[in-house]
Prior knowledge:
The protein has 128 residues and is mostly helical. The protein contains 6 helices and no strands. It is elongated. The two termini are 24 Å apart.
Amino acid sequence: MEFQKLWIEQCExxxxxxxxxxxxxxxxxxxxxxxxxYLEAAESDSDLRQEIPAFVAEIKSIFEPWQxxxxxxxxRLRPPFDPADYEDDETYxxxxxEFERQMDIHRCTxxxxxxxxxxxxxxxxxxx
Length: 128
């Protein structure tokens, strides 16, 4: 697979989304969906890691720093875990609910880490 081609196509798609649906939607697509997922995948793939600086440069050519900062402030925010969401479902017992709570903590922690890494790459003028 050509990793460079993948992120180039995603950046081009973001430009089209911006024209058709606005900057906010383009940011959500490129930063919240594609770039953060790319960073997560790059943790275990050196070929992807090598492409990050070029991907970042292309993102910075599309969006202003303040737009990126604003997007990253809201990235992957979701409501806190609520065990009451499971109380009416008879298929869940206390152990299942606790497991779901622990999985939610894991997901939130991973997402927070990835958003912080994205922030470092996209908002740090000194680069990586």
